[in-house]
Amino acid sequence: MPLYVRRGASKLWRKICGEVTVEIPLLAESWKYLIGGVVFQYIHGLAARGVHYLHRPGPILQDIGFLLIPELGREKGSISEALFASVFCSFALWTFHPFIFQNKKIYTVLIWCRVLAYLVASQVLRIVTFYSTQLPGPNYHCREGSELATLPPPKSVLEVVFLNFPRGILYGCGDLIFSSHMIFTLVFVNTYQKHGTKRFIKQFAWLLAVVQSLLIIASRKHYTVDIVVAWYTVNLVVFCIDRKLPEMPDRSMAATYSPSLPLSTKDKESKGRGEQYNLLNGVTMSSAV
């Protein structure tokens, strides 16, 4: 193996090990929130599976988006799925970039705690809405004449518990009012907007969110109202949760920052005033935030 390859691999390994030592204390403090957020993703899937049993196909509702946006057709419905997969994978990789790159602004554990908080709050609202009112699904497999439009009573509890994976995930009906894909997309874009560093990536991410919205309507997977509700509700959820949660710690001060959960705004202000007082009186600070 060439010398420069060995040096590069050794340097990368040191970066990963160093980042692991930083993230482990955060993980020890926040693992309950992470586990709870992941478990709720299953609960959300279980709720979507349950409403499929209540779905009854019917005439597609009048929709201005269906009138204005050309229909892609059943064969091209995977385009929106491919775009969503690329957004999901790109964001997930970005959250782990501190393990690889030198320029670090985020803590991976804290970012995922926030992302899961946004997702859970949005998904709770989504579950409430699609159980409150069941609409005839516009997707091709949800229309009248399709065998998948109405599910027969489950033959066993396992069929429900395991969501009839993967068919039950891919061919759901009845979970309307919100678009699940738009919830994830908007949460990811909002998170990068606040914590990312590249301006052109932020602009491109918002453009992809708009394209994703149009593709979902063109694929007839959701009504236009599902997209509209997702756009204003998810952004509002992110805004409200950000006001309640403390600010993320700035990694530009990593040399003096002791890994722990971020302080609240009030704590930061009081600590900042105390530091200014000590500095004015010539007292040496032992730590900084």
Quick description:
By secondary structure, this protein is mainly α. It contains ten helices and no strands. It is a multi-pass membrane protein.
Please provide a written account of the structure.
The protein is mostly helical. It is 63% helix and 0% strand. It has 10 helices and no strands. Helix 7 (180-195) packs antiparallel against helix 8 (199-218). The two termini are 43 Å apart. The model is unreliable at 254-269 and 271-289 (pLDDT under 50).
Strand-helix topology:
Blueprint: H1 3-54, H2 64-68, H3 78-95, H4 108-132, H5 157-161, H6 167-170, H7 180-195, H8 199-218, H9 224-244, H10 265-280
Question: What is the straight-line distance between the termini?
Answer: 43 Å
Quaternary assembly: single chain
Q: Mean pLDDT across all residues, rounded?
A: 82
> What is the number of beta strands?
0
Proportion of residues in helical segments: 55-70%
Largest sheet: none
- The succession of helices and strands, N to C, reads HHHHHHHHHH
Based on secondary structure, the structural category is: mainly alpha
Question: Strand-residue fraction?
Answer: under 5%
Shape: globular
Radius of gyration: 23 Å
Uncertain ranges: 254-269, 271-289
Give a quick set of tags describing it.
10 helices; mainly alpha; 289 residues; disordered C terminus
